[in-house]
Amino acid sequence: MKLMTMARTKRVFTLLLRVLALGATFAAAVVMATSHEKANMFGVRFEAKFSHTPAFKYFLIANVVGSVYSFLVLFLPAENLLWRLVSALDVVMTLVLTSGVSAALAIAYVGKKGNSHAGWLPICGPVENYCHHVGGALASGFIGVLIYMILLLYSIQTNLKTQLV
Amino acid sequence: MAKKPKVWVVPVLRVVAFFATVAAAIVMALNKQTKTMVVATIGSTPIKATLTAKFQHTPAFVFFVIANAIAGVHNLFALAVEFFRKKFNFKGLRLLIIVPILDMMIVALVSAGVSSAAFMGELGRNGNSHARWNKICDKFDTFCDHGSGAIIASLVGLLLLMIINVISILNLRKLNPIDRSVVP
């Protein structure tokens, strides 16, 4: 019977986390990219697209970068010297993903509730499906951020050979 | 010895980062501009309305202030740990490990605050023609300028926090290596 050594367990766990992170960020990017709705209300044409808002574009780019990075790291062979760089890049990726989610959330809040002080009306009335679509992308982005945070702690502990917890 | 000067790098950077994040929080918290504007004209009498732009109107700015305040408190706590390390040595080992972990979380929090405030500021500066949201920076220019200054200060604090985090983690390696010679 082949024993599961500690190193192998760690490797499997890391790979599993990274695959989950890849899935979450990729799903967020795809769902955001396909959000598009046209509506006609009282003769006024509303068209809602993710590319109208720079915050959503930034969210999309952040998640694309995150998923490409996850995908590339999956192929790194074990016990390579590059794993230390992966640890550092994990911090940077968590930062980028967090800021993307936060920016998109701020703009989506204005879109949903409006801002009466600035005279900005909410746009979720006519284009309700767009709002739900974007909400789904944001939720997926959040899950990606959470997985990345867990991954970050784990990768620093494993790759830099320090006992963090 | 050549190692002596390096002990002062992290505390100095932390002091600067503390001042940067606290300054950002304070500048944004005191961000307020009142302006009396002509809103409509009925007949020949212009109707004036006093409009105020405050940071509390926007949840993104509120989050920005809170995130930077938390980062400032964390920097103070980390400075205290750094200086009183000799006194609490029995607890010191665990505190020294908690500080980099908290640093990472604070870095993520501050980056989220900065980016949300920056995008809200961009929306205020340029408006959004597709959603029919008008820009507000042409009327409330001091408000926008102070906001931009606060965001830049927070970005500087964020950069310093990242550098401090990297240095702390690298210092941890010498302190607490995993014993790999023992088979679990």
Automatic annotation (TrEMBL), chain A:
The chain crosses the membrane at residues 55-76, 88-110, 130-154. GO terms for cellular component: plasma membrane. Keywords: Cell membrane, Membrane, Transmembrane, Transmembrane helix. The keyword Transmembrane applies. It holds the Pfam family CASP_dom. Homodimer and heterodimers. It comes from Actinidia chinensis var. chinensis. It is a multi-pass membrane protein. It is found in: Cell membrane. This is CASP-like protein. The lineage of its organism: Eukaryota, Viridiplantae, Streptophyta, Embryophyta, Tracheophyta. Residues 9-146 form the Casparian strip membrane protein domain.
UniProtKB/TrEMBL annotation, chain B:
It is found in: Cell membrane. Belongs to the Casparian strip membrane proteins (CASP) family. Its main location: membrane. Residues 8-159 form the Casparian strip membrane protein domain. It is a multi-pass membrane protein. The chain crosses the membrane at residues 7-30, 60-81, 93-119, 150-172. It comes from the Eukaryota. This is CASP-like protein. GO terms for cellular component: plasma membrane. Homodimer and heterodimers. Keywords: Cell membrane, Membrane, Transmembrane, Transmembrane helix.
